[in-house]
Amino acid sequence: MDIIYRNLQRLVFSDEFYGQENIEPMSEWKWRKLYELSIAYGIGPWVADGFRQFAGDFFLQPSNDLRHQFLALDGPRNQELLDKFRLLLLRSQSLRNRLTRESLHAYFNDFMTSIRNIEE
Predict the structure, then answer these.
(1) Taking 60 as the threshold, does the pLDDT of residue 96 lie above it?
(2) pLDDT, tens digit (0-9, with 9 covering 90-100), for 25-72
(3) Cα–Cα distance between 115 and 120 in angstroms, integer?
(4) Is 82's pLDDT higher than 60?
(5) Is 74 exposed, middle or buried (0-12, 13-18, 19+ CB in 10 A)?
(6) Mean pLDDT throughout 83-107?
(7) Which band of pLDDT confidence, cut at 50, 70 and 90, is reported for residue 102?
(8) How far is CA 73 from CA 4, 28, 77, 101, in A?
(9) Cβ contact 38:73 at 8 Å
(10) N or C: which end of the chain has fewer CB within 10 A?
(11) CA separation for the pair 75, 46 (Å, rounded)
(12) What value does the CA radius of gyration of the chain take, rounded to a whole number of Å?
């Protein structure tokens, strides 16, 4: 997961999981991308809450205009959209966890064993 999604996840779930983790430093372009993603996923109100939660974090430094845009995302909350975002994160993490060097090595070893058994 790239830095934009990690910070988005920290902001959205700041009360639940990431209260102790700091925001990672990002460029202004990345902050704008995070803003666009929060709108696209419909999770703006939770991102606004995260901005308030991490207000003192050193690396939460988008421009003042963008900071005001993030805080203006506060509005009606659609739990279904939040659940879809959470599911997206879980799926991406489970795919990444399955494709590790060790799992690929084990798959290759199983594959080679199957080939040897067929040849015999």
Answers:
(1) no
(2) 999 999 999 999 999 999 999 999 999 999 888 899 899 999 999 999
(3) 9
(4) yes
(5) middle
(6) 72
(7) low
(8) 18, 18, 10, 40
(9) yes
(10) C
(11) 9
(12) 20
- Is pLDDT above 70 for 23? yes
pLDDT above 80 (res 98): no
3-state secondary structure the chain: CCHHHHHHHHHHCCCCCCCCCCCCCCCHHHHHHHHHHHHHHCCHHHHHHHHHHCCCCCCCCCCHHHHHHHHCCCCCCCHHHHHHHHHHHHHHHHHHHHCCHHHHHHHHHHHHHHHHHHHC
Question: What tokens were used for 32?
Answer: 């704008």
Other beta carbons within 10 Å of 41? 17
Single-letter code of the amino acid located at 18:
Y
Q: Which amino acid is at 97?
A: N
Structure tokens at 104: 């690929």
- The two structure tokens encoding residue 96: 């990444």
